[in-house]
Structures are given as structure tokens and as C-alpha cells.
Prior knowledge:
462 residues, alpha/beta, Rossmann fold, 7-stranded parallel beta sheet, 6-stranded parallel beta sheet, 16 helices, 14% strand, globular
Amino acid sequence: xxxxxxxxxxxxxxxxxxxxxxxxxxxxxxxxxxxxxxxxxxxxxxxxxxxxxxxxxxxxxxxxxxxxxxxxxxxxxxxxxxxxxxxxxxxxxxxxxxxxxxxxxxxxxxxxxxxxxxxxxxxxxxxxxxxxxxxxxxxxxxxxxxxxxxxxxxxxxxxxxxxxxxxxxxxxxxxxxxxxxxxxxxxxxxxxxxxxxxxxxxxxxxxxxxxxxxxxxxxxxxxxxxxxxxxxxxxxxxxxxxxxxxxxxxxxxxxxxxxxxxxxxxxxxxxxxxxxxxxxxxxxxxxxxxxxxxxxxxxxxxxxxxxxxxxxxxxxxxxxxxxxxxxxxxxxxxxxxxxxxxxxxxxxxxxxxxxxxxxxxxxxxxxxxxxxxxxxxxxxxxxxxxxxxxxxxxxxxxxxxxxxxxxxxxxxxxxxxxxxxxxxxxxxxxxxxxxxxxxxxxxxxxxxxxxxxxxxxxxxxx
Length: 462
């Protein structure tokens, strides 16, 4: 097959022709053979490098080959492959990729995300299918309600693994992982950056799995050289006006205006809508109804809108090849999110432009972002060394064997101190009523307890 030297199922040829795919990207050439060879992987590659197809194609190829051999899934709610995504938007996009492939391979694909209808839940629970794309909280809920069975699971992919930890899914993931059979499941962590939390999670939760670590190049995590960046110095009050001037005089093609807060996104959307009523504009943030969010994304992806005003909910998972520019109305709080915002442009080898609106209070932040990107500080982007994985696994195993000693004050015994006895005014031992301060006063007047301690509440200040 011309797309890649590694043999894939012939049923994928129609997909390649339909999508106009002729050659694999660098990361696809490295990842596809490893998955076909039943290797668990950690993939570190820049946004827009083709990571989704790098795991979707080999998984579909393996499942279709299995089906050709007469093994067809007949168990309800028990997929062979599961893709875990942090957001509904990313899950929806991944689902679209698998559905496009399934048109040619005839594999059954389901998605399960927040806000799904009862009909969709019923379909996931009461029908057989090969592939499930879902968010962590919905997977946990489906397992708890026995709507999902992971006994047949052979492939698990954590897409945008770093964001899974940014958004606090660790408890949900810990719950879900208990259902995995480590002996029969092949794992993949797909990410553009590899923070310490993700690395530690992999070491702790998958100590017996040997991961193949894959990076597209030595600088796969760095901002793409195809992106031109401009820092525009403004005051906070000038930001709306500068954005308007940019839209009227300089903006060419389609782009995204990123803000840090939802109310900020609404303010910018309202301002531009009033000043430029003919501009096709859409708004996207987490407080919108699910139908509104889906409508905004669909309109933008299909090219019906020229500009999207959004929070970081759009920083990942939106793959639009013809995006030309990004405006950072507010600088993101971390360098990682800056990389992902920039990654919306210059996808698939194209060029892109990023404009940062930098106010005086942003100077420290943009310096930190520049320094982190240049020196890779605070990003921990290197692939995990084999020795480090082994050493951390041994430390974790030893830690579990340790017996926790009670805390002590310096120079004192660790034995618990004897509890002071409570006596009444006659020196007789009494029991504490445990009924609060009012009851304690009453007991004291009866002579059945010691005088309650009066607390010094301090001097009232005017």
C-alpha cells in the first residue's frame, strides 16, 4: 500500500482514496508498526502531526483482520477497543475519524460523553460493537450502572493524556483501570507534552507494562517553526479595539480568538458582533448548552463561520486544516496551553500566525512562556528513560511494603499519651456529656463536671 510500507488491511484503501491520503506522516510511520506488533506505546508528538490516525488505522486494521478470521463481536456493551478523551469536543472529533474509517471497514463505533441521551446510553449498553470513544466520567458511570463490560478489551488509548490530568480525571481513571486485564490489553498514551503527573501515573498504574516510547523528532514538542508569532503591546482597555482593527485590516482567512474566561469570551463576542455585524462569528465556552456547543463547532468546522471566539475548550481536539491565525486575547496561564492554542494553526505542514495581546501585567507571564518553550523548563517534555521507569517502579513497590509509624514530637515517645481524667468539684471521676457548651454549664451547676474553660475570643475591633 502506498500510504505506508507496513501492510494494513485492504479495506482501508477506500478510506485513503476518499480522504486523499497518499503518504503517512513521520509519527504515523513510527506508531503504526508498533501497534500492529502488539506494543504498548507512549507517543510524544506536536499538535497537527497526525496522531489520531496513527492509532486509529492500525487498531481498525487489526480488528477487521480478526473479523475476517471469523471472530465477530456478539456481546452487548463489550468493546474490543476504547479511546479515552478528556472532553466531549475531542471525543466527538475522534468519533468522526473512526466513523469515516468504519464506512469502509464496516466496524461498529459508539461514543459516550456527557449530556448523552437515554437512547444513546441504551445503544451502548444493549448492542454489540467493536470500538468505544468516551470521556472518563462517562466510562466510570457506565461501569457502575453495568452498562459497559470491559472483559473483551484489547486496546486502550488515552488521547491528549496530559489534559486528562489538567482536568482532574485522576480518580475516574483510577476507578476505570481496575477493570483492565493487564495481560490481554495493549495501551497507548498519546500526548503533545509529557508532564510529571502523567509520567508518574504511568509508572504507578502500569508497573508491569513495557512501553515503547516514540517521538516524531527531537523537537516534536516545541512550537512549530512554521508559525510566525507577534506580540502586540496593549492596555487592557485597548484589547477590544485592537481585535476589531485586526479583523478589519489584517486578518486573512479563518482563525480563533482565545480568551481565558467565559465572561471574557462573551464580552469579546458581543463587541465584535455589534461592531462587525456582517462577520460570520461563533462563540464557544463550557457554560453553553451542549447543543449550542455542538452547533458552534459544527458551523466552524464546516466553514460556515469565519471566526471562533473561545476559551481553552477549543485549544485541543479541533482539527481544521485551513485555519490561518490565532489571537491570544488573554495569555494562557501555562506554557502547555500556549503550545496547544498555537497548534490549532500550521497543521499538516501549512503555515500559521499567532498574535499575542500583551498588557503590562502580562509581561511576566509571556517571559515565563518564552523561557519555558526555549529551555523546556516546567514542561518535562522528554521521553521517559528506561532506567527511570524501572527505578520508579521499584520505589513504588518498596513504598507499599513500608509500615507507617505514628507521628511523634521530637524527643517524645511515640506511644499515645494517657487521656486526662475529668473530675467534678468533689474530686470524683465523671464522664463527659459530649453535649456542647450549654450542657457543660448545666452539668457544672449540678456539680457533675468541672467548670467549662472560657475561651478568649479577642477584642472586638470597630
